[in-house]
Write a structure and sequence with these properties.
This protein has 164 residues and is α+β, with helices and mostly antiparallel strands. It has helices spanning 2-17, 24-30, 34-37, 76-96, 141-163; strands at 39-42, 46-50, 60-64, 101-106, 122-127. Helix 4 crosses helix 5 (141-163). The site of zinc ion (ZN) has 5 residues, from helix 2.
Length: 164
């Protein structure tokens, strides 16, 4: 269990580095600049965004547009849309990143490790054998940023190819 949940624990730590007022999960989709904001794909009720501080290459989040920290606030339509979007993410990841495994999960509440507790979101982390020593290179922001752009382009193109 410790290893399984390690990726989620990173979120809180790294968001402490990047303090921000307001809610990025509301602000970023509203900016309508998806390449800059690393938004990969949008549906009626949710969007897919690469994690700026990835645990692994391809670490992303599926986020409802609705601002809430409570899963019970989401309608059936939103819940179904999120699950169908997760299925699309898995397909795109398999094609582009060829992971050997994946972590898919959600932290609800700050005590559970949620960095952005007021706006719930699923994490999807592709995993490869031997990747447990991977840590984000906080000092090498430029390298991580270039790698994020490359991953965004590849995955975005596959979303377009498969789902329009
Ligand atoms: Zn929000």
């Amino acid at each position: 269990m410790k290893q399984l949940w390690a990726p989620w624990r990173m979120e809180y730590i790294l968001n402490e580095v990047d303090k921000h007022d307001g809610c990025i999960f509301c602000e970023l989709p509203a900016e309508k600049d998806d390449p800059k904001n690393l938004i990969l794909y949008r549906t009626a009720y949710c969007f897919v965004i690469l994690n700026k501080y990835p645990y692994n290459n391809g670490h992303l989040m599926v986020v409802p547009y609705k601002h809430t920290g409570n899963l019970l606030d989401l309608s059936d339509d939103i819940l179904l849309d999120i699950q169908q979007t997760i299925r699309k993410v898995i397909e795109v990841m398999n094609h582009i990143l060829h992971p050997q495994a994946m972590n898919i999960g959600m932290n609800i509440g700050r005590t559970a490790g949620a960095g952005i507790a007021d706006h719930i979101h699923y994490h999807i982390v592709p995993r490869w054998d031997g990747d447990t020593n991977f840590m984000p290179v906080i000092a090498g922001t430029k390298i991580v940023s270039e790698s994020l752009r490359t991953t965004w382009k590849k995955m975005h193109d596959e979303f377009v190819r498969l789902y329009g």
